[in-house]
Amino acid sequence: MRKLFIKDIDVRKKSVMVRTDYNVPLDEEGNITDDTRIRATLPTINYLLDEEAKVIIVSHLGRPDGKVNPKYSLKPVARRLQRLLGEKVKVALAEDCIGPKVKKQIEEMHYGDVLVLENLRFHPGEEKNDPSFAKELAGLCDVFIQDAFGNCHRKHASMIGVDSFVPSAAGFLLKKEIDYFEKAVNNPMRPVVALLGGAKVSDKIKIIENLAKKMDKILIGGAMAFTFLKAQGIGVGKSLVEDSMLDVVKNLMDISRKNGIKLYLPVDFVVAENFDERAETKVVPFQEIPEKWIALDIGPASTKLFTEALQDAKTIVWNGPMGAFEFDAFSRGTYAMVDAVTSSHASTIVGGGDTDMAFHKSGKSHEVSFISTGGGAFLKLLEGGELPGVASLSDRRKSVRTASPSPV
Length: 408
Ligand code: AMP
Known about the structure:
elongated; 408 residues; 16 helices; Rossmann fold
């Protein structure tokens, strides 16, 4: 990673603000249903605790739209963090994320304590990237660490503003995400294979175009496949198609052919009379999707074809489910790909909300090399785009900065 890393700057006995992405799922009673994103930041927090820093955590949660809303309080997050760090570490929650009260609370912290500031999005300045809000946050710390990979595609005050006022660097999670991605997509062990699924070609077209320059094979499943089939004149019944993308897809297939990239499409499908789990289903070859039926998963022959295409891969990049996997009747293709990927010897990077959900549900998350914690940020990288939250951090080649004297 070309950006300054937490180990490059002096954090010992400093007040260190860590931007995390603790936008965790909550159930109706406000209990955290998946704490992966909190656990993923523990290396950064533990490093800072070892350095006897005051650890000031900032994050957003949900969409409170710039207003205080107890539903989106970081209270459950602070509680979970306390549990994960153990009783030896004091974790407290501040009532706000800026202001004199918070400042005083930070002054009174002991080195080695953790303070979680309340939801950044309770202030409109966060999402508006208001420089005065960023400056207020920066005024609470000596050093700023960016570890919110999942939010790095957003130009919010805590993502691109705070680091213009105080020395900044990437945390362990951010570095791991970027390094893994670089290794898998931009400098992969070959053959490198992309497995892409999901609903809409229009959402993923930039990704396919970018990966067509870098991959050896691209396997396309999910509803996206139907636009590719229709572009070749094949009937797809009532399956999801984007007619506006037909020319784009044709062009992409031509380019892939010219560049020698092998594009794989499913050869059979699970079709249903309508989009209903209880509807009658059957497996048909790709040329035989009945006119009034809808294809909702890849079939067994496609699973075999894709599994074989992954066999010699040294690197696999996966985003998007192979079918409407939320319903058991249409989930087999996706889970078969989970099996194919976890049983391969390739280095595998998986990302995008639905795809990591499939791994979690299958209980096989620990069998894959790396599951990205970012949805939108991961997709942006797959598109070949730059992440503002990373770009705004200081470059490594510039002289390593040391933290300024503590303002609090
Ligand atoms: P995306 O967010 O673009 O990755 O799309 C994920 C969604 O695509 C999931 O909710 C799936 O149910 C849906 N999906 C995948 N394959 C199909 C299909 N054949 N027909 C309808 N929806 C699908």
